[in-house]
Specification:
By secondary structure, the protein is α/β, with parallel strands linked by helices. The protein is built from seven helices and eleven strands.
Length: 227
């Protein structure tokens, strides 16, 4: 389940989850940090095989959620690796007071991973903020829900029509229209987008849809042009 995505970066697909009747695929990432530990992004449902594969990379010391929707498996992971620190995006700790969090993510990377990974928060929406990351060794930008890219064969009928209308089908990809409409202060989002583009990423890893091994900067610029 865990496959190399780039140098010192791995990805694993999880089970599809239903979101407003759409079967959303899920994906997580694991980075092998310079200190030998494992940094886990947006964990999917945990299995024994996945746990063993991650233990082979290094001790899990950091578990991060990129936005308020990516928390369903956090309890499993924090129980399996109780010594790992769990990081919440803005707003998630208030939404899920029953979950344990050690820190809230911001625009400055935690010193524990700042040598390997950079980050920025996309703000400006009254509904949800998302933290985007950049893995330096693999030149990979990592997005949760802000960029979704589904193949034409993903769904049929009215669902395909709706995804095409939303700009989520094909190589371009984009942000779901309902979320786009909540960005009332787009200058903040534009500043975050510029920072991502300044990273000049080569690869793109996303939670929902088709990733890219090349051309990430152009894909991101096009997908977030609405900002």
């Amino acid at each position: 389940m865990l496959e190399a995505f780039g140098p010192r970066l791995y990805a694993a697909d999880g089970p599809a989850v239903s979101f407003y009747s759409f079967p959303y695929p899920t994906r997580m990432a694991v980075a092998h940090l310079s200190d030998g530990s494992a940094w886990v992004w947006s964990p999917v449902s945990l299995t024994g095989d996945l746990a063993r594969a991650i233990d082979a990379i290094g001790p899990v010391r950091h578990i991060v959620s990129p936005n308020k929707l990516h928390h369903l498996a956090l309890r499993q992971w924090s129980v399996r690796w109780p010594e790992a620190r769990v990081y919440a995006p803005p707003g998630l700790a208030r939404k899920t007071p029953d979950l344990r969090f050690d820190a809230e993510l911001g625009d400055v990377a935690d010193p524990a991973w700042s040598a390997d990974i950079d980050q920025v928060v996309f703000r400006g929406s009254f509904a949800m903020a998302e933290v985007t990351f950049f893995h330096r060794a693999s030149s990979t930008a990592i997005f949760g829900d802000l960029i979704q890219r589904f193949p034409e064969s993903y769904v049929t009928g009215w669902k395909r029509t709706l995804l095409r209308w939303g700009g989520l089908l094909g190589d371009r990809g984009g942000t779901p229209p309902d979320w786009r409409s909540t960005f009332l202060r787009r200058s903040q989002a534009r500043a975050a987008r510029q920072r991502v583009l300044d990273w000049n990423p080569t690869r793109l890893l996303i939670a929902h849809g088709t990733c890219a091994q090349a051309g990430a900067r152009a894909i991101i610029a096009d997908a977030l042009r609405w900002m």
